[in-house]
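Researcher: Good morning. I'm working through a list of sequences from a screen, and I'd like to move beyond sequence-only analysis. For each chain I'm collecting a predicted structure so we can compare shapes side by side. This is the next one on the list. No need for commentary yet; just the structure.
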Amino acid sequence: MKMLPVFLSLLLSFAGALKAQESPMGAWKSVSGEVTSMLLITPSWFTVTDYNDKSFISTYGGTWTQEGDGEVNVFVHFNTAYNPPVGQKGNVPVTMENGHLITNNASGEKQEWTRVDDGAGPLAGNWRITSRERDGKMTAIPEGPRKTLKMLTGTRFQWVAINTDTGEFFGTGGGTYTFENGTYTEKIEFFSRDSSRVGAALTFKGTVNGNNWDHSGLSSKGEPIHEVWSK
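Model: Good morning. Structure tokens for this chain:
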């Protein structure tokens, strides 16, 4: 079970990275036995997820902002392994070592994170679903406490369905993606609702116009979807 000091140890490693002018943006990976941990850092959101080749284990995440030289503020919005998840904050700096994030895991042991990508790409950032096609018509999804977000780095994605007021968690999935010539392809590595979807590759048509991303194809259930996500 991940406790608050572990959040601070991990997520406030951002502070040391910023102070050393080494951008922490992007995807980071840590492997312990059969468990893979993925850390995604986008300009304002982060997620940390544990899974193995068979099933999803846990995830937590939230927002972060830089507050001066070498310090950040962290707010944990959701956590499937620890309650209460809402309102956990802190701002203690931790340094990077030789290009790696070095933190402590839930057992207090040293954990080393290796960079997967630098967070650069046409889709990199934080996205919220803002409209979906229903009965042939696009229907707006107004912003509220309950929301579906998608965080993308240069090569990795994760979506989460949460309530940011209560900390309720409704589901998540993630893995790798590519976006080339208007074609967006996801390969699922974890899926909290149905582990049988792991390994599936989903292809969508995609166009980006400013801060809006038009996204259409077939869902993991094989159902047609047409959505707009906005930064």
